[in-house]
Amino acid sequence: MKREETEAFVLAQPYSAPYEHATGPVGTRFFTELRDNQKILGMKCSGCNIVYMPPRSTCPRCFAKLEEWVELGDEGTLLTYTVVRYHEPTHPTDAPFAYGIIKLDGADTGIGHLLGEVDLKNISIGMRVKAVFKEEREGNLLDIKYFKPI
Amino acid sequence: MNQRVAIVGVAQTRYQSSRDDARVFELTFEVVERLLDETGLSIWKDINAVVSSGDDYVDGKGISNDQITEVVGAQYRAEHKVAADGAFAVRYALLQVLSGHHDAVMVTAHCKESMIDQNLINNLAFDPLYQRYLGFDLVSAAALQAQRYMHKYGITPEQCAKVVVKSLKNAKNNPYAQVAQDITIEEVLRSPLLADPIRTLDCKPVSDGACALILASEQKAKRITDKPVWIKGIGSCYDAFYLGDRDLADCDSLVVAAQRAYKMAGINNPRNEIDVAEISGEFSYQELLWYEGLGLCGRGEGGKLIDQGVTKMGGELPVNPSGGLLSGCPHHVAGVARVAEVALQMRGEAGARQVPGAKTGLAHGITGPCGQLQCVIILGS
Fold this sequence. Notes:
Strand order of the largest sheet of chain A: 6-5-4-7-8
Radius of gyration of chain A: 21 Å
Oligomer: heterodimer
CATH class of the domain at 5-115 and 206-224 in chain B: Alpha Beta
CATH topology of the domain at 5-115 and 206-224 in chain B: Peroxisomal Thiolase, Chain A, domain 1
Structural class of chain B: alpha/beta
Order of helices and strands of chain A: HEEEEEEEE
Shape of chain A: globular
Number of helices of chain B: 14
Order of helices and strands of chain B: EHEHHEHEHHHHEEEHEHHEHHHEE
Distance between the termini of chain B: 16 Å
């Protein structure tokens, strides 16, 4: 008997989940300073002599509770970068665009962010960059529009 | 380890770009059924516990209790879940046997990456407060790591491309591989850029599949098979979560994980003492970087190692005779499949991809952006 082929059924089920993430005391202070005063704050562990960016309440190295805020510069050094050429709805801007990990002056760790006002063919590790703030800030990391070369 | 624990059987599906003919649970049942057939074990009489590995987000559900229990014989019994790479499921199964409460534990891993855009899912791996809404995913994060690694140590795109060439060539000997072909370095370097310096062919393809294996106590193992594969050592380690906390050019967590596994297995010189390795490189550069973390060469020497042909079939220490992740293997399944492949090598049952006379092997799994969490398992015949 001839075998009958049946078509495989596929159910499409989109799903969206609008979470509300509390920013906690550390995040709240960080985002408030960023939004209201265009200040970027790091958190220092005196025991390890490390200034963390992004700031956090516990030192992952020595487990100390952290409370020593440090104001960081709005300039920094590019630790690494990439030029993204594919499209995703998660992207904050249209491809092609560049990401970098930036070590701000005064910090010991880097933060991932966008690079802007940049020639995508002319980015290099070690490059100096500066934060460009948005005019209307909302209290998240995109209050820094991007980092531009200086 | 003061007791010996063995792998007594393994089963894999063929890895494919899409298995829309089956639900993810049905893929799991394919390998469970085959595993029980091949070992002659009864799910009810012989298997005392199950550890499964998968990801609820990828599976499109909010609770892991959904149906996986039915296909692993866990109804009215226990089943434990690992939301990290399957190598960690092997680790928990090992601990269950070592506890003395169970003498045979089954490990399963399942994943249908084709169900949803993996970049959307993997964006959730990033911190919602500071990084997620910047749109990072595993590809862009890997590109940041590749750029840093290649810059710091002078690793070339050609050396990365050699990993792809080797993997897809090896995969021709693996009946479970999804992608197997002769490809040139030039073809890899001509494939479209996704995120500099990573090109399409530098990435593992979207893949669906499942893998299962059974771990047993020494006493039970010897009753089941005359070719038990012993777990000689295991080590795992986390690196910092934030990418900017690490120097991405070095994989310090893998160094620690490997040292823990080597110490337990009594291995002093991994390059000399290990006969075959199956490692989890989701991107071509990662294989070179993991060589360094595993201590097969010095820091920054991963490119030189592949240039010298040390890790090709017939080389001093063949890495990924199966073709590895670049030839197709989904997340979560990847680590269990690496263990399964090394177990086949130890049994001398790896067919055309067999490394002749292999007695000691290494399997490796990773979870998280840029290999944050690392697991190394040493097996011996």
